[in-house]
Amino acid sequence: MKSIRIMIAVLCSVGCAMCARVIPMQQPTVITELRLGDHDAKNEVIVYVSMTCAHCAQFVVEDVKKFCDEHKDCKIILRFVPAGSADLFFMKLIHLAAHSDPVRYHQVYINLMKRYMATLHKVRSPNRARRKELITQRLKERLLAEMKEQMQKDGTAADEKECEKLVNEKFKAIPQEQLDALSGEQLFPTAMAALGFEFTVDDILQAISTERDAYRGVVMRQFTIYRSEIPGDSNEVVLPIIMYGVRQFKTLKEAYEAILKEESPAE
User: Fold this and answer.
1) Comparing 179 with 156, which gets the higher pLDDT?
2) What's the pLDDT band for 1 if we cut at 50, 70, 90?
3) How many CB atoms neighbour CB 156 within 10 A?
4) What is the mean pLDDT of residues 14-29?
5) In the chain, is it the N or the C terminus that has fewer CB atoms within a 10 Å radius of its CB?
6) pLDDT at residue number 233
């Protein structure tokens, strides 16, 4: 379980049988809802999670998947509750990589959560200087890998010294405020997970949100719509939250038992 203070929130979910509801942005659109399970299933359970909560990640990767595999008459709607800049960073990063494709969004999200769980305990460091050193190292490694991949596609030879020179030039072109954000205490664990994944350096840098960010604006507007669906008046919530109708449950099993009880004939 994770207790968080909600700063912003947006509805999203993951699914095998995908159905997406999107909000128009200037381009591209922002996916706000994906469904896991049979689109025609008459019952649905809503689950609120945070992308930077390791417990939530494990819950989605293991429990939610198992539930949908075993209960074909019920779909899951997974809704992300961003607790701060790190959650928003992950959400925008997946958005950029998925290109508004619900199936791709689901794949990237699940794979990233697995990566995040595997690396979270390894990336904590004691001070900012060490964080910046690690971010610099990972960025240069990723830039070099991208450069070699492009050279391979172009059929050109990769000269190590020339590649190193070009990588250093590209790195120097990265604004200092972006490097500071990635090595900051809030974004560092998520940035390290992202740099070890399939995201491009350009996407990682674009995923750093600013107050004028159009994506952030869409997310903030959605928060005003969906916050009322989360039980309680306080900004402090314990995730994941599992809902069936207006009732909250501790487990998916309990929620499903409530569904069965409603469907069974009265004695």
Assistant:
1) 179
2) low
3) 9
4) 43
5) C
6) 67
DSSP label of 185: T
How many other C-beta atoms can be found within 10 angstroms of the C-beta atom of residue 114? 15
Instruction: Report how far Cα 246 is from the mean position of its chain's Cα atoms.
Output: 26
What is the DSSP-derived secondary structure letter of residue 121? Answer: G
Global pTM reads 0.83
Q: Is the peptide bond before 240 cis (omega within 30 degrees of 0)?
A: yes
Please state, in angstroms and as integers, the Cα–Cα distance from residue 210 to each residue in 79, 92, 181, 196, 205, following that order.
23, 12, 11, 24, 11
Handedness of CA 152, 158, 160, 163 (dihedral sign): negative
Tokens 């999200």 belong to which residue? 109
In whole angstroms, what is the distance from residue 86 CA to residue 139 CA? 18
The tokens of 176 are what?
A: 């200092």
Nearest CA among 25, 43, 57, 45 for reference residue 217: 25
Neighbours of 111 (CB within 10 A): 14
**Are the C-beta atoms of 11 and 32 separated by less than 8 Å?**
yes
Could you please report the per-residue DSSP string of 200-259? -HHHHHHTS--TT-HHHHHHHHHHHHHGGGSSSSSSEEEE-EEEETTEEESSHHHHHHHH
What does the block give as tokens for 33? 């809802």
CA atoms within 13 A on the CB side of 179: 19
The strand pair at 74-80 and 43-49 is best described as parallel
Separation of alpha carbons 85 and 71, rounded Å: 35
Domains identified in the chain and CATH numbers? 2-120+213-263 (3.40.30.10), 124-202 (no CATH)
User: What is the structure's pLDDT at 235?
Assistant: 67
